[in-house]
Amino acid sequence: MLLAIKLAIRKMCPDFIWKLYEKFKYKRWLHNIDKSNRIWANSSFMRGGIETIEIETVNRCNGICPFCPVNVNQPQRPYAKMTEKLFRKIVDELAEMNYKMGVSLFSNNEPFLDERIIDFHRYANEKLPEAIFWLYTNGTLLTFEKFIEIMPFLDLLIIDNYNDKKEINSPELQRIYDYIQKHHEFDERVKFWFRMQNEVLTSRGGQAPNKQGMNDRSTLNVLCILPFVQLIVRPTGEVSLCCNDALGKYTLGNLSTQSIAEVWSSEKYKSIRMDMLANGRKNLLLCKDCDFICYTSLETIRKRP
Fold it and tell me: Exposure string (b/e) for 77-90, b if CB count within 10 Å is 16 or more?
């Protein structure tokens, strides 16, 4: 009924009136998000808590996704692979903090390019039994055996199947897909996403290859929640601004020489958060060109029984 009424009103409205209405509605939506994010940011700032940590163990991806600034067709970052010693240091510190929030052993990479990824998940699960673990993969290196082996350590696995024909990319993925259709215990824990190879997504701080010059809007007047809730660790231990800082243009500390608490409460981090609260995105590199808006709450991920 509401849709029918909306369509009827649309037919009666002149185009310029409707465009004004849509523009007003969009601005109102952004205003509400900004208001909500400011409440969330202030609350997180006062608590001083990390809600998600992404640990990138190797800085490589085998994907050709044109929306990603680190796809294989782009200039590659200097190769780096996290040492096991550094990985254990980070996880052990989280355990000492009694960390119970989100852990992702990936960031801007394909996690299964690291042959240790399952063992790393096993260790992190042992040390952080109440944390929430999730993983994204393009599925190209995921075998059925690896799937069965890693799932006890994951609350959520998202398989991005990039195929413009919406076909499953390999016999191994087909086997996994068929398996999860028959085993309903995976209904909430495995998401098999059929995605277009040439999607245009967010601007990634103005770095997305297939969105260059497309974002002609001025800087979004919306506070970004990411610097208040998210810790992104590169394989070297260096900490980036957020998940959209794929090339590590910001370095806010180094966990190979500093503790998590030292980096999270550092003057660099505080300065960025205060600037974001006071001035929004306009003064911050990457942020001023970024159209990222919505952050997914951990509440959408169900903890394993």
Answer: beebebeeebbebb
Read off the pTM: 0.89
Cα–Cα distances in angstroms (integers) from residue 168 to residues 5, 139, 163, 186, 194, in the given order: 40, 10, 7, 18, 8
Residue from 170, 182, 181 nearest 146 by CA: 170
Least confident of 1-15, 57-71, 241-255: 1-15
Q: Say how far residue 256 (Cα) sits from the centre of its chain.
A: 23
Q: How confident is the model at residue 18 (pLDDT cuts 50, 70, 90)?
A: very low
Predicted confidence at residue 189, as pLDDT, reads 95
State phi, psi for 125 to the nearest 5 degrees: -65, -40
**What is the spatial distance between Cα 105 and Cα 86, in angstroms, rounded to a whole number?**
13
Cα–Cα distances (Å) from 2 to 5, 6, 8, 254, in that order, read: 5, 6, 10, 53
Q: What is the CA radius of gyration of the chain?
A: 21
Measured CA to CA, the distance from residue 19 to residue 10 in angstroms comes to 10
Determine the average pLDDT of the residues in 84-103: 97
Spatial separation of the C-alpha atoms in residues 75 and 135, rounded to whole Å:
25
What's the CA gap between 82 and 269, in Å, rounded?
Answer: 23
Q: Which single residue is written with the structure tokens 């050709």?
A: 64
Helix residue ranges per DSSP H, the chain: 2-12, 15-47, 84-96, 117-127, 144-150, 171-182, 226-229, 260-264, 267-279
Long-range residue pairs from 262-270, CB within 8 A, at least 24 positions apart, any chain: 263/231, 263/239, 264/48, 264/50, 264/231, 265/48, 269/227
Beta-bridged to residue 134, according to DSSP, are 156
Can you tell me the distance from the alpha carbon of 221 to that of 281, in angstroms, rounded to the nearest whole number?
7
Q: Which of 145, 203, 210 is nearest to 179 (CA)?
A: 145
